[in-house]
Amino acid sequence: MFGLNKKDSVLFVLVLFLTMCAPFLLNPFPQGSELAQFNAGYPDLMQRFVIFGIFAIGFNILFGLTGYLSFGHAAFLGVGSYAGVWMMKLLTMNVIPAIMISVIVAGLFSVLVGYVSLRRSGIYFSILTLAFAQMSFSLAYSVLTPITNGETGLQLNLDDPRILGVSEVNGSIPPPNLFGLSLRDSAEMTFGNWVFTFNTGYYMCAVLMLIAFYISIRIFRSPFGMMLRAVKSNQQRLNYTGLNTKPYTLAAFVISGMYAGLAGGLMVAMDPLAGAERMQWTASGEVVLMTILGGAGTLIGPVLGASFIKYCENIFSKINDNILHQWFAFMPDGIEDVIVFLVHPFVGKGWHLTLGLMFMLVVIFLPGGLVEGGQRIGRLFRRRKPDAASDASQTKPAE
Amino acid sequence: MGLLEVKNVNKRFGGLQALGDVNLSVAENTVHAIIGPNGAGKSTLLNVLVGKLIPDTGSVIFDGQSVLGRKPHEINQMGISRVFQTPEIFGDLTVLENVLIPCFARRDGSFKLHAFETVMHEREIVDMAEQMLTDVHMIEKRNLQASTLSRGDKRRLEMAMCLVQQPKLLLLDEPTAGMARADTNNTIDLLKEIKATRPITMAIIEHDMHVVFSLAERITVLAQGTPLVEDAPENIKGHPKVQEAYLGQSHE
């Protein structure tokens, strides 16, 4: 299908199904029930799943294939965001130009950063990218205030020109739209106690993520992708085989920078606001965590990792002491307080502690990430089956 | 005029004269061995030939063009392939992929952004790689990960990766270093087979005399960075200068 082999087609259709049915799949618990807080089927969070999915897919093209660990990819996301907001200020609230310019500007910026950083490899490359990202962050925060609006962040105003659109509608800023279709519109479907929300913005992001995912599969299976894996495996041999590794790594760097720009553009399409903190090193670190947690170098890993982290971030950070007391209410008072006291640091504001622990567990026990976990479970089942068959054959003679 | 002409090459590392006035001519379609005791400058010479080191003076002309100042990938594109002392292969890739990469390098040059084609759809390249693996008797191992191969098979794979490029000159850096006698003989047989089935020029750096005398048609003896003699194998064995270089002061 579309030039993919059977295995990749299955994977693609699976991701297609998951993204298109996400409003159902992420809302398994009825409204008002105690478990409803574990639902993730609301537009804001679903959008973040797919946007960070795109970011991580792109990061994986660089890190998963070539092994070059960039610690500054958030800079491209941030640059893309600023460029996108400017398009919405100057041109129109239609998000298409904003998204396009985000990808282009992030791509150009990554040519510059990549050209300099790729002069070194290993830890020095990581440090160079980190330095670039922190420089971008500082510039956006202070020096470039006329462009970035510094601390406050770049926002839309009522008096923005928007020469191809309108500056205001009934005294307020018009919502971002896709050829007139407001991205904030949602259709709701009620089914008993369940409410499913279908948001225009989410579906636009999801379609773009599917395209991004498809392109990444094609890159993985292409001669170019093979060369990138060869860079990771043995750069010396590649040089002595007549291949110039520099343009290959630079191309991978720029492609992943453009993915980051696309993610940044989509963020502002969903919420037209860009702040410098988007470029900070913690944001760069987050995409590294997502990719490694999901499984670097695998196709589906980054998407899983991104969804997993964003889900945990939302759910764990929402849990507070009141909720904990409700959960452990069945216990005797003294013990309940102790348990709540022990769990407290891991939830709410302390959810990063949980994330850190999970990350350590994954890196130590599942170096291949969640994907490896899935494969191990799969193998366990496959091994069980012949066992069951041999058990059956063994019982026969006994009869 | 040989395929490879090394003229008056000097290379100094601080106080050490690693190469002193090296002159060497490798004729087309011959196997030329460069031998010499440890520290004779064999590896330095090889590194000059592949562009890893730039000599202080002198010239290295390959096929009418200078190789000096060119990067390793450019020199490979000129038609020089290199086999390393310890096999350098792509350990994380499959055996077939290892051979596909040089095929792409030969067809598409040192860089091509072929990001939207599929490797396995490039029929002619895949056929070429599979034919090469058949020639070196490794076709049944094509889907194995290269790092899982035995040392002998890794060497075989590396040779296949070089040969599939149809190089004008194949450089071999101690291809049997650290090998057991049986593996050494296998490698000699493989090289003889290669030599018999296709026109090829080889330059071998080696200190195992058994290998050298089984393969070489022409031998240059290096000692302390300078060529002592260059001659046919039968004249090298009894040459007094060679015995002196290898065994120290000759007993007269």
UniProtKB/TrEMBL annotation, chain A:
<dbReference type="InterPro" id="IPR043428">
    <property type="entry name" value="LivM-like"/>
</dbReference>
<feature type="transmembrane region" description="Helical">
    <location>
        <begin position="201"/>
        <end position="220"/>
    </location>
</feature>
<feature type="transmembrane region" description="Helical">
    <location>
        <begin position="327"/>
        <end position="347"/>
    </location>
</feature>
<dbReference type="GO" id="GO:0005886">
    <property type="term" value="C:plasma membrane"/>
</dbReference>
<dbReference type="Pfam" id="PF02653">
    <property type="entry name" value="BPD_transp_2"/>
</dbReference>
<feature type="transmembrane region" description="Helical">
    <location>
        <begin position="45"/>
        <end position="63"/>
    </location>
</feature>
<feature type="transmembrane region" description="Helical">
    <location>
        <begin position="123"/>
        <end position="144"/>
    </location>
</feature>
<feature type="transmembrane region" description="Helical">
    <location>
        <begin position="353"/>
        <end position="374"/>
    </location>
</feature>
<keyword id="KW-1003">Cell membrane</keyword>
<protein>
    <submittedName>
        <fullName>Branched-chain amino acid ABC transporter permease</fullName>
    </submittedName>
</protein>
<feature type="transmembrane region" description="Helical">
    <location>
        <begin position="94"/>
        <end position="116"/>
    </location>
</feature>
<keyword id="KW-0472">Membrane</keyword>
<feature type="transmembrane region" description="Helical">
    <location>
        <begin position="247"/>
        <end position="267"/>
    </location>
</feature>
<dbReference type="GO" id="GO:0015658">
    <property type="term" value="F:branched-chain amino acid transmembrane transporter activity"/>
</dbReference>
<dbReference type="InterPro" id="IPR001851">
    <property type="entry name" value="ABC_transp_permease"/>
</dbReference>
<keyword id="KW-1133">Transmembrane helix</keyword>
<feature type="transmembrane region" description="Helical">
    <location>
        <begin position="287"/>
        <end position="306"/>
    </location>
</feature>
<keyword id="KW-0812">Transmembrane</keyword>
UniProtKB/TrEMBL annotation, chain B:
<keyword id="KW-0067">ATP-binding</keyword>
<dbReference type="GO" id="GO:0005886">
    <property type="term" value="C:plasma membrane"/>
</dbReference>
<dbReference type="GO" id="GO:0042941">
    <property type="term" value="P:D-alanine transmembrane transport"/>
</dbReference>
<dbReference type="InterPro" id="IPR003593">
    <property type="entry name" value="AAA+_ATPase"/>
</dbReference>
<dbReference type="GO" id="GO:0016887">
    <property type="term" value="F:ATP hydrolysis activity"/>
</dbReference>
<dbReference type="GO" id="GO:1903806">
    <property type="term" value="P:L-isoleucine import across plasma membrane"/>
</dbReference>
<keyword id="KW-0547">Nucleotide-binding</keyword>
<protein>
    <submittedName>
        <fullName>ABC transporter ATP-binding protein</fullName>
    </submittedName>
</protein>
<feature type="domain" description="ABC transporter">
    <location>
        <begin position="4"/>
        <end position="249"/>
    </location>
</feature>
<dbReference type="GO" id="GO:1903805">
    <property type="term" value="P:L-valine import across plasma membrane"/>
</dbReference>
<dbReference type="InterPro" id="IPR003439">
    <property type="entry name" value="ABC_transporter-like_ATP-bd"/>
</dbReference>
<dbReference type="GO" id="GO:0015808">
    <property type="term" value="P:L-alanine transport"/>
</dbReference>
<dbReference type="GO" id="GO:0005524">
    <property type="term" value="F:ATP binding"/>
</dbReference>
<dbReference type="GO" id="GO:0005304">
    <property type="term" value="F:L-valine transmembrane transporter activity"/>
</dbReference>
<dbReference type="InterPro" id="IPR051120">
    <property type="entry name" value="ABC_AA/LPS_Transport"/>
</dbReference>
<keyword id="KW-0813">Transport</keyword>
<dbReference type="Pfam" id="PF00005">
    <property type="entry name" value="ABC_tran"/>
</dbReference>
<dbReference type="GO" id="GO:0015188">
    <property type="term" value="F:L-isoleucine transmembrane transporter activity"/>
</dbReference>
<dbReference type="InterPro" id="IPR027417">
    <property type="entry name" value="P-loop_NTPase"/>
</dbReference>
<dbReference type="GO" id="GO:0015192">
    <property type="term" value="F:L-phenylalanine transmembrane transporter activity"/>
</dbReference>
